[in-house]
Amino acid sequence: MRTFLRQNSLSLFFGAIFLAALVGQSFAGWASFNDTQVSDGLMTIGYGEYVTSSSFAADVAENWQSEYLQFLLYIWATVWFVQRGSPESKESGQVGTESDRDQEVGRFAGPGAPSWARARGSRRAVFSHSLLIVMGTIFVLSWLAQSVAGVVAFNEEQLTSLEAPLTWGQYLFGSDFWNRTLQNWQSEFLAVGSMAVLSVYLRERGSPESKPVGARHDDTGAEG
Amino acid sequence: MRNRRRIFLATAAVACSLTCAALAGCSAGGATRAGAEETAERFSRAVADRDGSTACGLLVRDARDAVETATRTSCERGVLRLGLTDTGASAGTGTARVYGRAAIIEDGPDTVFLARSGGTWLVRAAGCAPRTDAPFTCALDGS
């Protein structure tokens, strides 16, 4: 057990703080929703009803889709683009999907390599892009969830203001959906871009996300 | 094999969560829609029967206040002076659409807006006519 905890501490740590933040968001959102109910002269709702509401679902999904888009683009972009001096980047001569030898697939796969890395045809192709596939799928599903839950939450506000509701199609091309979407996207892209650039000149001793403290600024792809 | 199964289960759990989140956002089921239509119908019938007390009991607080402010009398008397015609819901021609805890029953110039308080639907606005690129204009406005 102790070994499991030590060897999986990174995922366990982020899993725990994710759950804590999600629960915290649910209580803060519930309180805010009920404040609005009271100011409208309506009865408050229970916690269970709030966390199964379109309002909560839209708030969660809009954040999830942008996070997965961020990593989807980051994973893809680091195949084809480089940042000189960044530990997040490959050397400029390694742009692209690289050779089978470098990627240790097929006959170049070492002992203990995943079986699909050793396989031929579609299985190797799918496994070679499995990270993008899964990240992309989660992004699409969460963006879809944002749009479906978002149109209901938006129309609930529309009706409160005595305005006509929108169809899902109208909402998809409307300002509320794209305002929610783009305000999340801009922050995600800024964070990733900042990381790529700041890691050229700054260090965090011991982190694999940083170059070694004594590494040169133009040293690309080095990990601490 | 065990790792592939873990990855599959984790991905399936995320996909299921997202699907549930999307379904949670879908418009309410028939029972909720029926409740909204029933409230609109009861309100319309109360106005038609000159039963101001029942009609006011079906209004949200802001709507009752709006009636009293507009007519300068009690809600029970004032709601009968607003010129509200049959909403169309009681005639069975109104179409109820529910979004979360709000609903609309559209019937031309007799559109009704409702809000859910606890397990009960209440009328927020009635006698509403649509306007281009603007909120509805309502004889009874509790927004």
What characteristics describe this protein?
heterodimer, A: 224 residues, mainly alpha, 2 domains, 66% helix, elongated, B: 143 residues, alpha+beta, 5 helices, 5 strands, 26% strand
Give an overview in words.
The complex is a heterodimer of chains A (about 220) and B (about 140). Chain A has helices spanning about 1-5, 10-40, 45-50, 55-80, 100-105, 115-120, 120-130, 130-160, 170, 175-200. Chain A is mostly helical and about 220 residues long. Chain A has two domains: about 1-50; about 55-224, no CATH class. The radius of gyration of chain A is 23 Å and the shape is elongated. In chain A, about 25% of the residues are buried. The mean pLDDT of chain A is about 95. Chain B has five helices and five strands, in the order αααααβββββ. Chain B has one domain. The interface between A and B is large, with 39 and 38 residues.
**Compute the gyration radius of chain A: what is it?**
23 Å
Number of domains of chain A: 2
SSE topology string of chain A: HHHHHHHHHH
Fraction in helix of chain B = 40-55%
Task: Bin the strand percentage of chain B.
Answer: 25-35%
Oligomer description: heterodimer
Computed structural class of chain A: mainly alpha
Largest sheet of chain B: 5 strands, antiparallel
Tally of helical segments of chain B:
5
Strand tally of chain B is 5
Largest interface: A-B, 39 and 38 residues
Question: What is the spatial order of strands in the main beta sheet of chain B?
Answer: 1-2-3-4-5
Shape of chain A: elongated
Uncertain runs of chain A with pLDDT below 50, 5 residues or more? none
Measured between the Cα atoms of the first and last residue of chain A, the distance is: 28 Å
Number of domains of chain B: 1
Could you tell me the radius of gyration of chain B in angstroms? 20 Å
Helix-residue proportion of chain A: 55-70%
